[in-house]
Design goal:
Shape of chain B: globular
Oligomer: heterodimer
Largest sheet of chain A: 6 strands, mixed
CATH superfamily of the largest domain in chain A: P-loop containing nucleotide triphosphate hydrolases
Helix content of chain A: 25-40%
CATH topology of the largest domain in chain A: Rossmann fold
Distance between the termini of chain A: 35 Å
Strand order of the largest sheet of chain A: 6-7-8-3-9-10
Bound molecules: adenosine-5'-triphosphate, magnesium ion
Shape of chain A: globular
Order of helices and strands of chain A: EEEHEEHEHHHEHEHEEHHH
Largest interface: A-B, 30 and 22 residues
Number of helices of chain A: 10
CATH architecture of the largest domain in chain A: 3-Layer(aba) Sandwich
Chain lengths: 252, 340
């Protein structure tokens, strides 16, 4: 039983094919990494899955139902919720109210939604900013807000688009812990990330895109040895570093 | 915002309503017809601006068409009384439903499009409805509807001896509209509405059906505006197209709210409390010049506001409150330094 199935999805912008017959599946309870060079089509794929874009061809299934062509709010209501790489705070609303909007997806009740919002704000270390307008947050805070708001919806599948980009290495460690906690709650994750040190250790499976085409899919171990992935994205030096780290951890 | 701050705010509103309810007990107020008239209009225009605030302030969709909904409500009550010899109440109900229906019909295609289609479409319906009502025999055409003398009281919503009846009617309208908005503001619908204003795609990504939210807000706003229009007709004892369905009237919905502070609960009241006395006193002074002067005054004030403080009077009040708080904090800091 898969939670998400992307079947031969194609997305064209005029002559540009941003996603070219991409297929993969996400099993419930797992973390799947989606990687690839800039412009590979990762964000476009998120936009297709979440219903922001109408796809040019292919089909998408989520939790046993076909979601191809559904409006994005329906897909979110089914439990597939995403964050935005280019952050989109609801600027004039407070950080708390931003997260509250997410929390209301779990029910209209005020008390419960407030409790959920408070918890998600705490998990994402935003408590000190809770009453500030979201537009005033520093960029790291806005990234955490994206995560808190999506998390508050109580999703089955959480799709994170570079939530760690631009964070300091301490912040990245913090974010990785948050992601671990989220997985422990039973939430499935699909994560776009350029920071390999962050995604490789936590992913159960990695899907690699290049020029809109899926060039590899498999456990992180195999991906870092894959010739095509090394030449298209990781680079020889970087791949050796990841391999060396793997050897170290084996011996330890 | 924490719950204690919310409760404190509600106490302020409660105190205000009690104070307003006691006003006519002061005989100097009750016997001053001009003052009563101004107070009634402040309450009425606060309520009107608040209905606009639902879609225009919280929802961020600028409507120039609210005089159409206002007018439909006025005609609903007016026709019930003048044409059919009934009490205005069934007419008010029908007017509210009709206004909501017109609002949804206009908005449905516009909300699907982005950009300024909504503002332009609402602008256009004022002209269309105005002209239509001018030549529509059934609704009284250009002559409009003149109320006959009927029995005083709540059943006919009509009082001749004093303005006290209308005053309490306006206060009830004020409490109803502000109460509804206060409730929405702190519940899911209100949060969703603001979320759609701040970012429609973002709101949708969180499960918000933005189209349904905007349509509901628009329908509610129009129905309540119609109720205000019915009051206006009952109060003036007449209804005609230029009086209730003009662009002038539409602009007052917009300007009062923006001047006071769009998207805030207090904004419409603050805006009306400043603009209505100004309008009525300028009218009393330059009565012969007709309706033009007050709009010029409105316009100038709006220009000043937009340049000085885009958040309106409520934004100014907030700034002043912050300033005082900072002063107080600074003063406290000062004494602690002076202390041995
Ligand atoms: N709305 C759009 N209209 C036209 N072209 C687009 C649009 N969105 C993306 N593209 C193009 O599609 C390709 C894939 O872009 P996308 O943003 O999906 O890449 P990405 O893998 O997310 O890259 P990055 O790692 O830089 O975020 C790029 O060539 C981009 O210019
Ligand atoms: Mg991207």
């Amino acid at each position: 039983m898969t939670l998400l199935e992307v079947r031969e999805v194609t997305k064209k912008f005029g002559a540009l094919v941003a996603n070219d017959k991409v297929s993969f599946t996400v099993d419930p309870g797992t973390i799947v990494g989606l990687i690839g060079p800039n412009g590979a089509g990762k964000t476009t794929l998120f936009n297709c899955i979440s219903g922001l874009y109408a796809i040019s061809a292919g089909r998408i299934f989520f939790d046993g139902t076909e979601i191809t062509g559904l409006p994005s709010f329906r897909i979110a209501r089914l439990g597939a919720v995403r964050t935005f790489q280019v952050v989109r705070p609801l600027k004039e609303m407070t950080v708390f109210d931003n997260v509250l909007v997410g929390a209301f997806l779990q029910g209209a009740g005020n008390a419960r939604a407030r409790a959920t919002a408070e918890e998600c704000i705490r998990i994402c270390n935003l408590t000190e900013y809770a009453d500030k307008p979201a537009g005033d947050l520093p960029i790291g805070g806005k990234k955490r807000l994206e995560l808190a708001r999506a998390l508050a919806t109580g999703p089955k599948l959480l799709m994170l688009d570079e939530v760690m980009a631009g964070l300091t290495s301490t912040e990245v460690k913090g974010a990785m812990e948050v992601i671990h906690d989220i997985r422990r709650k039973g939430i499935t994750l699909l994560i776009v990330e350029h920071i390999m040190e962050a995604i490789m250790p936590i992913a159960d499976k990695v899907v690699v895109l290049d020029g809109g085409i899926k060039i590899a899919e498999g456990p992180p171990d195999r991906i870092i040895d894959d010739e095509r992935v090394i030449s298209a994205y990781l680079g020889t030096k970087f791949s050796r570093r990841l391999q060396a780290r793997r050897e170290e951890s084996k011996h330890a | 915002m924490n719950h204690r701050a919310l409760k404190r705010k509600d106490l302020f509103w409660l105190a205000l309503v009690v104070l307003l309810a006691l006003m006519p007990a002061v005989s100097a107020v009750a016997t001053n017809t001009f003052l009563m008239h101004v107070l009634i209009l402040i309450l009425l225009f606060s309520a009107m601006a608040q209905t606009w605030n639902i879609i225009g302030g919280y929802g961020g969709q600028t409507s120039f068409g609210h005089s159409v909904f206002f007018g439909i409500g006025a005609y609903g009550a007016g026709m019930a009384v003048v044409t059919y010899g009934l009490s205005p109440w069934p007419g008010i109900g029908i007017g509210m439903v009709a206004a909501a229906a017109v609002a949804v019909l206009i908005s449905y295609p516009c909300f699907k499009l982005s950009g300024h289609y909504f503002a332009i479409a609402t602008f256009a319906i004022v002209e269309i409805f105005h002209r239509m009502f001018l030549v529509w025999y059934w609704v009284g055409g250009a002559l409009g509807l003149d109320y006959p003398v009927v029995e005083q009281g709540l059943k006919n919503f009509m009082w001749y001896d004093t303005k006290t009846g209308y005053y309490y009617g306006a206060l009830a309208l004020f409490v109803l509209v502000f109460g509804i908005v206060r409730f929405l503001e702190s519940h899911r619908f209100g949060y969703y509405l603001r979320a759609v204003r701040e970012g429609q795609e973002t709101a949708e990504s969180l499960g918000v059906n933005s189209q349904a939210i905007k349509l509901t807000a628009m329908a509610l706003s129009a129905a309540l505006a119609a109720m205000c229009g019915a009051f206006f007709g009952q109060y003036n004892l007449r209804v005609d197209p230029s009086m209730v369905m003009s662009l002038d009237m539409s602009m007052k919905f917009v300007l009062v709210t923006i001047l006071g502070g769009a998207g805030t609960l207090a904004g419409p009241l603050l805006g009306a409390a400043v603009l209505i006395p100004l309008q009525e006193y300028t009218r009393a002074l330059w009565g012969g010049l007709g309706g033009g002067v007050d709009l010029i005054v409105f316009g100038v004030l709006i220009i000043i506001i937009v340049i000085k403080q885009p958040a309106g009077i409520s934004g100014m009040v907030r700034d002043i409150a912050k300033h005082i708080e900072r002063r107080r904090a600074a003063a406290k800091g000062g004494t602690s330094i002076d202390a041995p």
